[in-house]
Specification:
The protein is α+β, with helices and mostly antiparallel strands. The protein has six helices and 13 strands.
Length: 321
Amino acid sequence: MHAKTDSEVTSLAASSPPRSPPRRPIYYVMSPANSHHDVDRVSLGGSSPGASPLHPHYHHPHHHRYASSPIHHSRESSTTRLSASLKYTSSSWRKLHNHTEGHHLGSAASSGCSDSDVEDDGPIPVRCYVAWFVLGFILLFTLFSLILWGASKSYKPDVFVKGVVFRSYDIHAGTDLTGVPTKMLSINSTVRIAFRNPATFFGVHVSSTPLEIYFSDLKIATGYMKEFYQSRKSGRTVAVAVGGSQVPLYGGGTGLRSRTEDGGAPAVVPLELSFTIRARAYVLGHLVRSKFYRHVRCSLSLREDRLDKPLRLAHACDYHD
């Protein structure tokens, strides 16, 4: 190895061909005024990529040749259009959502008392006091009504059948409305019912289902009690006429007989009396009402030799609600 002389260096420099200047990079700039136009390709002369004021991103020199190809140019244009479309859709959706939410909040604030009215440091609006007063009044009135209704249920009316008096009893041969011959029954009686209202703060309206007397399964007498009003802590005795006239017996009355029919001994006929007492209490007008029902079923015997004499039913009746 030996050092080259100045003449050799000069000759080598003169014989070597001149080098071509380096290629200048190519950049793409998208106009912000219209995102749907194609990008423009510009050459930045001798300026460096970092100093270019037209594009914010720096492109590596190794990618210049790939970025300048038509395929990449088409992909970048499509991507740019899609991004702009998505940004426009998202912006429109946010505007619509904010408008709808603001409309709902405005309606809620104008219609009543909102949370922001209470959380503010300023004075509470009058509409808040009105809303609270109305709500509190409804709650208190509902509670008071429930208390009254529950208290009224403990004051059940007292119903007691004191007795019955049979006025007449007769069986004779006859014909029904169609001309069929059969036995005909006529009976007349009076049922005495005691009713008492033990309530201390309300009266009751009392009514009853028809009072019915049965022989086995055959209804032979019916009576109706008039409706009445019973004031608080008071009572009364009601007399109800129960009877039947020319009741055809057909085959159901084979066991029935009377002394007037065959001239024998006085008849004893087992019967059954049933009805239901209904009482309605208007505790607080028509807003708070209570209803009471008392079902009564009595077993009794008609003695033909004891007509017009009271028959006591103290232990002959069943009472249930």
